[in-house]
Amino acid sequence: MKSTKPVLLLVLDGIRPDILQAAIEDGEAPNLGMLAERGEAVWDAVSVFPSITPAATAAIATGEAPAGSGILGHAWYDREAGRVIVYGAMRETVISSGPIKVFHNNVFRMNRDDLLAPTLFEELHERGVDGACVNFPIRRGPHEHPIRLKTIESYSKSGGRYLGSAVHGPKEYYMGDLFYSRETGASGRRGSGGIHRSVGINDEYAAEVGKVLLMKQAAPFTLIYFFKGDQVAHHEGLAAQRRYVTRLDGYLSRVFEAGGGLEQMLEDYAIIALSDHGHAPLFPKNRYVDIGSIHGFRVSFKARARLNARREIVVVPGGRSAMLYLREDVGERDVVEALMFRRGVDLAAWWEDGWIRVRKRDRGLRFRPGDGPLDPFGGAWEIEGDPGVLDLRLSEMSVSYGEYPDALNRLWGCMSSPRCGDVVLSAAPGYTFGEVAGGFHRASDHGSLHEADSRVFALASGVPAPRRITDVAPILLEYFSESPEHHVL
Ligand SMILES: [Zn+2]
To answer: Could you tell me the distance, in angstroms and rounded to a whole number, from the CA of residue 49 to the centre of ligand 1?
Structure first.
């Protein structure tokens, strides 16, 4: 009988493929270098649109684009409820300083209420495969995990409006001092700090817990998430991310050592390491595109935004992407016209008669799935208008992508959601629309359809490497269903 090796999935938030390659060439990422060399390496894999962590991690965990997973980014406007739902831009910020509602939305609501597709943890559980998760934001599963942090426990018990006393996750679930399934020595050290101080959620912690998990018999499926490389790029830029990759490789080395060293791990495990999105460096000046005001329209902006008699547009920026929700009497074309020639606005997209229309300054195209040229992933499209808008290389038989990888499928996979804005914006390189609460990252940002933030790497050993981040879940489901002992009879 063929035996199935356990799977280790490593998600390295926001690390650009070229940055990792540079680190490997410099000899400063020997573990990831060896994984790339010995396994399969894809350097031009593709994220979803918007290329933002909640959307991208949901895509990895469910195999669904945002329209299928229901998670469209850091925030979206709930038309029925008339309010903006904010998951928070940065995990670190949400946990350490976020208001309790954002924390609630991020840790409880997103997985429990808003995630529409089953996760890998749920699907694998059905097949008799147990999972373990360290820090990954999308972790819904069949097992209940009580909150371990005293401050939050007492907040919940005191009848606070938000926060539950437990979440549902895989068999083993670890997130700093908040949730841990067994004592690893890494949790609980600062357990009295409360959510307004550090709760031990960081890459060091992920490595420590990963080490403990691999030292004994690991779960059949273990997912470990490292997020600091994204934060470093946001605040200090790509050179700093390059330096961070060296540290990250050191963390991975600790995890691999616990499994007997990478050489041994390649024998004993199937491994996938990938990033969820890329990063686009921002201009040092004038990088912020303030779409909180749009000429000729009354705009509602930030976390309390809503449509009403006095407000015609709700603007929800998400880094280098933005979603605009229009009141019924407001026309998409008029809004696009008002924005299209603003500095930093690259693309605008909206629905018209079952087609998605895309504008880039005064040029336009429209597309929909249908009888037409095939893209590199096998999707067939009807395309009319100027293919240059999305930098498409078009022939009768095929369409391939330039600056905007997998653009047609990614726009479709976002805009098909009823949670998506009526008009969607993608920023030009160097620019950002900032965060939903106002403010913006200084050095680098992501979210757009452009290749800078859309390209990711995927390294794999023992399983096929994904070409798109939505391939990860199907690849792993296939992997586990191939093994006889996991067949559900
Ligand atoms: Zn980020």
So the answer is: 14
* Euclidean distance between CA atoms 394 and 55, whole angstroms: 29
Residues of the chain with CATH 3.40.720.10: 7-282+453-486
Structure tokens at 183: 């004592």
What is the rounded distance in angstroms from the CA atom of residue 156 to the CA atom of residue 294? 41
In this predicted structure, the answer to whether residue 96 has a pLDDT above a threshold of 80 is no
Cα(146) to centroid(ligand 1), Å: 28
- Does the domain spanning 7-282+453-486 belong to CATH 3.40.720.10? yes
DSSP, collapsed to helix, strand or coil, labels residue 109 as helix
14 CA from centroid of ligand 1 (Å): 6
With 60 as the cut, is the pLDDT of residue 486 above it?
no
Residue 97 neighbours by CB distance under 10 Å: 14
Ligand 1 centroid to Cα of residue 198, in Å, is 19
Q: What pLDDT, on a 0 to 100 scale, did the predictor assign at position 191?
A: 41
User: What would the pLDDT profile of 427-441 be if each residue is shown by its tens digit?
Assistant: 999 999 999 888 899
Give the residue, 101 or 348, on which the prediction is more confident: 348
Task: Tell how strand 166-169 and strand 75-78 pair up.
Answer: unpaired
3-state secondary structure of 197: coil
Neighbours of 53 (CB within 10 A): 30
C-alpha dihedral, 427 to 428 to 430 to 434, nearest 10°: -10
Cα of 90 vs centre of ligand 1, distance in Å, is: 7
Q: Which amino acid is at 223?
A: L
pLDDT at 411 over 60: yes
Task: Report how far residue 290's alpha carbon sits from residue 213's, in angstroms, rounded to the nearest whole number.
Answer: 45
CA of 48 to the centre of ligand 1 (A): 14
Using CA atoms, how far apart are residues 266 and 34, in angstroms rounded to an integer? Answer: 10
CA distance 345 to 336: 10
Instruction: Check pLDDT > 60 for residue 193.
Output: no
| Measured distance CA(131)–CA(224) in Å, rounded | 11
The better pLDDT of the pair 334, 100 is held by: 334
Selection from 354, 336, 332, 356 nearest residue 346 by Cα = 336
State the pLDDT confidence band at 155, using cuts at 50, 70 and 90: low
User: Phi and psi for 194 in degrees, rounded to 5?
Assistant: 75, 170
Neighbours of ion ligand 1 (CB under 5 A): 230
Query: pTM of the full predicted structure?
Result: 0.94
Give, as one character, the DSSP assignment of residue 102. H
